[in-house]
Amino acid sequence: MPSREEVRKHASLESCWIIIRDAAYDVTSIIGSHPGGPKAILRYAGNDATKAFESVHALDTLTKHLSPKQHLGPVGNQEGISGIKMQETKSKRLGPAAKAELRAIISIRDFEVAASRRLPPRAFAFLKAGADDEFTAQWNRDSWKAIRFWPRVLRPIESVDTSTVILNNSFSAPFFICPAGGAKLIHTEGEVLLTKAAGKNSILQWVCNMSACSPDEIVRVKRPGQHVYWQIYAANDLEITKKEVEKAILLGFTGIALTVDAIRAGKRERDARAIILEAIADDDADDDDDDDDDDDSFSTGPTVQRPATWAKFDWDSAIKWLRSITDLPIAIKGIQCWEDAELCMKYGVHPWLSNHAGRQLEGAPSAVDTLLEIRRRCPKVLEACEVIVDGGVTRGTDIVKALVLGARAVGLGRGLLFPLAYGEQGVSKAIRILHHEVETAMALVGVSSIEQLSSLQVRSYL
Ligand code: HEM
Ligand SMILES: Cc1cc2nc3c(=O)[nH]c(=O)nc-3n(C[C@H](O)[C@H](O)[C@H](O)COP(=O)(O)O)c2cc1C
């Protein structure tokens, strides 16, 4: 991540960097061919050109005319993980331009659009990527639209209470922050900012063991009485994961999830393409003596890699192993059919209906699909367990629909990661937006508390 001081050193025809919206760009190669003339750019060499640039150009000019290599990343002082340039850490406060952008954001989808402009292209690609053609990722979003409410009217509703209990602990809302690695691609402070925003708004954060912030750092910033839960992948060396879980419990994490839908990474082409293109751009000295038969770029792994996962678990051994470590509530994350939800019930754990944001198996069912199947085939699960869902949630109405269908809690991955491009303030605003939308939806369907949602019906077009 270049500092402003470093950018200032590149102020000549030979090496010309400029800053636009708090990010630096190497524009040396376009000076000579710039349609507005070289002087227009050179006047701002080494400096902030935001105002002059934006008065003439659309923001996508930069993506269209500069290679990923020329996007130098947000101006700051630290290098990010995976070689990707990061958000500035020093300034806790947003600059005036970012503040204005944040003011203009009024929905979760707005945050995605803003993040696509604000983040380095490779970081955005990592977050956004789904498996293969990304139709499962898209289906996750679309399937919420295939559910319609049957609202009740003329019910006196003076205020709406969105608070609920998720795995024994109370929260202000039924939605939560999903476990997700890669928060440091968005902001150098990463997950701790999610913890702060979750604490401030009294919602649940489910932290992952792939998080770039340690559990100690998370616990350090959490508020008194704030509950955070811990998610694991079981590593090939189970002892290591066991120690991790024990440590998390000692630190005060009060719920556990085991993710089971990712024994290997899905084929995330958007992410792989960004990695490959960056490597090609960096590889100026390619002498082309590689044997094309050896080119296996199609199997490029994701930007954030994780160690190999223990793939030998079956239901008995997995639950026995977990129960040998803890009595805390356990969720099994990545349940994708009613039969496995029924097994969760049998084993006394909670089914977390998720297809990992459509990043694993293309063609996997959405949480809505699985929830509907559970209602048809094994509705007892909804009484015996707390059913958790996630995938494609961007609206308060999605959350309320999930609850009417019988879910207890609804997770958001990208929906609360993209706002991190605006730091803790961004995440807090996203949570407030969702809160407002949930409250509005509840009033409009005719309920004033979460418990009353179970008395409602919805119509499914799936
Ligand atoms: C340092 C800030 C910059 C200033 C002040 C500036 C100014 C200008 C001006 C005055 C024009 C002519 C507009 C017209 O004919 O109506 C222009 C055109 C253009 N500039 Fe820049 N420019 C800047 C940076 C850049 C950068 C960094 C790029 C590419 C990455 C770029 C790409 C273009 C292109 C493609 C056009 C043609 C018109 C268009 O497609 O927008 N400019 N610029
Ligand atoms: C960038 C990213 C990283 C993720 N990392 C993890 C992870 O480490 N562990 C996990 O169980 N799920 C992970 N997930 C999946 C989320 O927990 C969640 O299931 C999913 O994001 C929900 O879908 P949504 O992003 O459409 O809201 C990740 C998702 C994304 C987008």
UniProtKB/TrEMBL annotation:
Its cofactor is FMN. GO terms for molecular function: oxidoreductase activity. The keyword Oxidoreductase applies. Keywords: Oxidoreductase. Residues 100-462 form the FMN hydroxy acid dehydrogenase domain. Residues 1-76 form the Cytochrome b5 heme-binding domain. Pfam families: Cyt-b5 (PF00173), FMN_dh (PF01070). It comes from the Eukaryota. InterPro entries: Aldolase_TIM (IPR013785), Cyt_B5-like_heme/steroid-bd (IPR001199), Cyt_B5-like_heme/steroid_sf (IPR036400), FMN-dep_DH (IPR000262), FMN_HAD (IPR037396). The keyword Oxidoreductase applies. Transmembrane segments: none annotated. PANTHER family: CYTOCHROME B2, MITOCHONDRIAL-RELATED (PTHR10578:SF104), S -2-HYDROXY-ACID OXIDASE-RELATED (PTHR10578). This is Cytochrome b5 heme-binding domain-containing protein. It comes from Oidiodendron maius (strain Zn).
